[in-house]
Amino acid sequence: MASAPKVMDIDLMDIWGKCNEMLVYQDEPYNAETPPGALAAQITSLDTFYSRNHAPIPRIDSASWRLRVEGLVDRPLELSMDDLHRFTERTVVATLQCAGNRRADLIEVREIPGQVPWGPGAISTARWSGVSLAEVLAKAGTQPEAAHITFTGADVSQQAAPPQPFGGSIPVAKATSSEVLLAWAMNDQALPAAHGAPLRVIVPGWIGARSVKWLQRISAQAEPTDNYFQAEYSVLPPEADPEAVGPGDGITLGPVAIHCAILRPARNDHLPPGPTEVSGFAFAGDDRTVARVDVSADHGSTWTPTDLDPPENPWTWQHWRAMVTLPPGEAELIARAWDSTAAVQAESPETVWNPRGYANNAAAHLHITCRP
Ligand code: MTE
Predict the structure, then answer these.
(1) What's the rounded Cα separation, in Å, for the pair 233 and 227?
(2) Which residues of the chain have pLDDT under 70?
(3) Which of 128, 213, 283 is the pocket-test mutation for ligand 1 (most atoms within 8 Å of CB)?
């Protein structure tokens, strides 16, 4: 696995519909992070949207493709794309964030072998269109014992033990919330192959792993799925050996926790001392919003409140900015965010380090040098 991202010199547009500025960790399976400049836009363009895969990207013929809806339902369904288009079309703007986002900061604390060393760009926002999952489930008639909705994709991952299609599940309460979509379009264009064409799940506010791409099967079950990736995306105690734990060990990840990133200045920038604009974004996760973001240029002795954009809805990131006076010499900028439940970010990556490197929601730290 690559230890640092590289900017590709081949034309990624032809292969995955991505621009050459993407920070690519792996070509196969393709794993690439949104370039820092693109994180400042409210809606991420298709060619800069991050891409996280556990197997080669399948190319699916949408004409012969069918979605099966089965398990604890009164009326099992087999739906074509035409059938799905007969439901009411819905659009939701939602931020998608990988649970491994900002793992690189955790790796600086202690090594995390075998995992992609994501920086702060395994996160992006799109306008997703498709059908409400709740409507499809209502047509199938979920039975009272159904407590979890399981999703299975078409891509078979050799990273799983044993190799199996990527899958995940969410509780029925979330699955029947109006914001959860089966999406066929992204930013008003047909869903690209890299993002799950012809159909994917979008679970706003939850870790990206539950938004299963290349969806083939939905199953209503009494228990969460036993798919390898449901258990893999969990936070283990710091002392646990990830090779030795069982499927039920750890805290299974669902809703994202509040976190933020500094976009400007950039890492290792050289700036003159004095007033400068600091900007970034924060994402609250679940169906919370960001309530406040503060910035410090003096190791946390004093804090400047930022001008925070209002939320577009509870499932999207919010950008912020503030004028901060930089001291001469080496400086450390810190940004920390609060959500609408008054939960605040962890102080440092040391506090949240875990063996698989998930859910890093520590305050953002940025080192810069200030010289006239
Ligand atoms: N769905 C399938 N079928 N296969 C995958 O590898 N990766 C998941 C999720 N859905 C994945 C998947 C993970 S971990 C994330 S973070 C998101 O897709 C990434 O979505 P994107 O590639 O569209 O950005």
Answers:
(1) 11
(2) 1-14
(3) 213
